[in-house]
Specification:
Layout lengths: L16 H10 L6 H11 L4 E4 L6 H12 L9 E4 L3 H14 L8 E4 L5 H10 L3 E4 L1 H10 L9 E4 L2 H6 L3 H10 L5 E6 L4 H10 L4 E4 L2 H4 L4 E7 L5 H11 L5 E5 L2 H13 L4 E4 L5 H13 L4 E5 H4 L9 E4 L6 H8 L9 E7 L6 H9 L4 E2 L5 H20 L5 H12 L4 H12 L44 H9 L18 E2 L3 E3 L5 E3 L16 E6 L9 H12 L9 E3 L4 E6 L3 H7 L4 E2 L2 E2 L2 E3 L2
Parallel strand pairs: 1-6, 1-7, 2-4, 2-5, 3-4, 5-6, 8-13, 8-14, 9-11, 9-12, 10-11, 12-13
Antiparallel strand pairs: 15-16, 16-17, 18-20, 18-23, 19-20, 21-22
């Protein structure tokens, strides 16, 4: 449930008694600013431009009026909600089901890639009043005639900026043109870029602009700290900060799925209850991980940004930005996972030596300063653990818990064991990972990662950030991120061209800011060196099938959940195409595209050796 931060009730917003009871049952008490402003306007039938970020209550802001306006006697689909990812689509669908409790006969379904389309077709044939889906899968259903938009009264775009970033602009416009012109259109976006404004001008009628300012979005109950730290010291610093701040439930954000797996494995090797959450996991596995996290069975969840879109846990007391987010928007999304429901939260952001310039960007964007912190020393950790042990023993001494052990102590003394030796032995077992003379961490389990020594973080330091050659795996990528503001990979320039082009879902952006469609090249450039981290995939569709780069990007991102920005070079020929896919995503892409289509035509993929 999203955080509610206003002080007025829902009673005066024009909602029915049935909906008010559902709101109370769902746990909402007072509306947030975006809900106060948007709900009455949507109920009045106005088109809305909502500028708000995750954590401001926007799902209920558009969901409550949508539920209110559904005619349950009409079995047609009356509201369509587009979301950028399947995680968000599922989250929105589940939230609407909670908020619609009591409105008998109301049906809601989520449609997205990565799951059986036949089960979704079965749901749609039964008649769904509200459909929540990703652009690619929605278009699939439209082309199969399994989703009809004739009865659409309300069209909602959630996180429109993220959908554009993933290359879904043409898909969004295509779906909008299929819906009846006499409809209500609601668009929510964290930012108002030129492409977003173009969509609002073309498809919205006399819209009301509802905006939540950065000051309202930034959570005052979060302490924001930053640390200048090398890649090889990140894991050690994070675990020490976790211990010293006595965190119980925390999120660790990374930029890649592979890094999430590596960090979670390293954490488990040191005895922490940690799991990874990312797009390569099947939905059942994700649900299992999230259940463990909510129940406290794991206390450190290592996640990528896309996977974390569906995380909704109120008791998170700390967030680690192990990697800096590639987009500043994601920083607010990340830290907004803590400090909820009036509780104090803490965020810890790690800056590599070459990333320090981004600190000012973050502070300008959030309009709040970050406090500089120093990575804890071993002495601090030793002193902390000593003090905590004494406190724990004193607390036990106030109860009867020690009485059974007093008799055992006497038994050992009678056997001739010196009490000092016994005490020292017990301390060694309890505090085996520290020493007052030469502090060292507890013994590690066998780890697949090479270690380096020679600084104060000792043996516990992670080397997961380095490749097998000992270099920094992300060194080359960081320079790319600095030169391309969003951190996305770029389409390479044609030979002889000085124009800089950034890839953005099948488009090129010139230095002037003008966006133009990239004309596919007929063959691979001889000068282009293959990326060792990318795999070449053959697709059975080409020019004769009227396939364009944006179609391939949109289909792969929509059906498999990978980011459009992660997709590499695309070559389109007459009867087939080639696309570069990160090797870590290959299985996910191949499985996600089984029995799927691009532009309504069956597609098959084959990895090239």
């Amino acid at each position: 449930m999203e955080e509610i931060i206003s002080t007025n009730g829902f009673e005066g917003l024009g909602l029915s008694e049935t909906t008010l009871q559902a709101i109370e049952k769902a746990g909402y008490t007072i509306p947030s600013p975006i809900q106060l402003q948007a709900i009455p306007e949507i109920l009045n039938g106005r088109d809305i431009i909502g500028q708000a970020q995750t954590g401001t209550g926007k799902t209920a802001a558009f969901g409550l009026p949508a539920i209110e306006k559904i005619d349950v006697t009409d079995r047609s689909t009356q509201a369509l909600i587009l979301c950028p990812t399947r995680e968000l689509a599922l989250q929105v669908c589940n939230e609407l089901k909670k908020l619609s409790h009591g409105k008998k006969g109301l049906t809601i379904a989520a449609v997205y890639g990565g799951e059986s389309i036949m089960m979704q077709i079965k749901d749609l044939k039964r008649g769904m009043h509200i459909v929540v889906g990703t652009p690619g899968r929605v278009i699939d259903h439209l082309e199969r005639k399994t989703l009809q938009l004739d009865g659409i009264k309300m069209f909602i775009l959630d996180e429109a900026d993220e959908m554009l970033n993933m290359g879904f602009r043409e898909d969004i416009e295509h779906v909008l043109t299929q819906a009846p012109k006499e409809r209500q259109t609601i668009l929510f976006s964290a930012t108002m870029s030129a492409p977003i404004l173009n969509i609002t001008k073309r498809f919205l009628t006399d819209p009301v602009h509802v905006k939540i300012t950065k000051k309202e979005v930034t959570v005052d109950t979060i302490e924001q700290w930053y640390y200048d730290i090398s890649s090889s010291n990140k894991l050690e610093a994070m675990t020490q900060l976790y211990d010293l701040n006595e965190l119980k439930l925390c999120l660790v954000f990374t930029n890649t799925k592979k890094k999430a797996d590596e960090i979670s494995e390293e954490l488990r090797a040191y005895g922490y209850k940690a799991e990874a959450l990312h797009g390569d996991l099947k939905q059942s596995a994700r649900n299992e991980v999230m259940t463990k996290f909510r129940n406290g069975q794991i206390n450190m969840l290592v996640a990528t940004d896309v996977a974390a879109r569906g995380i909704d846990v109120n008791d998170v007391d700390g967030v680690f930005n192990y990697d800096l987010p590639q987009d500043l928007e994601n920083y607010v999304h990340r830290i907004g996972r803590t400090g909820r429901a009036g509780k104090l939260g803490k965020s810890f952001t790690f800056f590599l030596p070459g990333e320090r310039y981004r600190l000012k960007e973050l502070e300008r964007f959030t309009k709040s300063p970050l406090k500089r912190g120093d990575a804890p020393s071993k002495k601090q950790l030793v002193d902390f653990k000593k003090t905590k042990l004494v406190d724990k023993i004193n607390a036990l001494a106030q109860t009867d818990a020690l009485k059974p052990f007093e008799a055992l102590l006497e038994e050992y003394v009678e056997k001739g064991i010196d009490p000092k030796v016994l005490t020292a032995g017990l301390l060694q077992m309890v505090l085996k990972d520290i020493s007052t003379v030469e502090p060292e961490r507890r013994p590690r389990k066998e780890s697949p990662y090479t270690e380096r020594g020679g600084d104060r973080f000792g043996d516990r330091r992670s080397s997961g950030d380095r490749d097998s050659r000992g270099g920094d795996r992300f060194g080359d990528r960081r320079s790319s991120e600095r030169s391309a503001g969003s951190g996305r990979d770029r389409f390479e320039s044609r030979a002889g061209s000085n124009e800089r082009r950034e890839r953005s879902g099948g488009f090129e952006r010139r230095d002037s800011g003008e966006r133009t469609e990239r004309a596919p090249r007929p063959e691979r450039s001889e000068s282009r060196q293959p990326d060792a981290n990318m795999a070449r995939v053959l697709i059975n569709l080409g020019h004769r099938d009227y396939v364009k780069p944006r179609d391939i990007v949109g289909a792969l991102a929509g059906e498999t959940g990978i980011k459009g920005s992660d997709i590499g070079h695309i070559d389109i020929f007459d009867k087939h195409s080639y696309v570069d896919i990160p090797k870590s995503d290959i299985d996910r892409v191949l499985n996600g595209m089984k029995n799927n289509t691009i532009k309504g035509k069956s597609v098959s993929l084959e990895v090239q050796q």
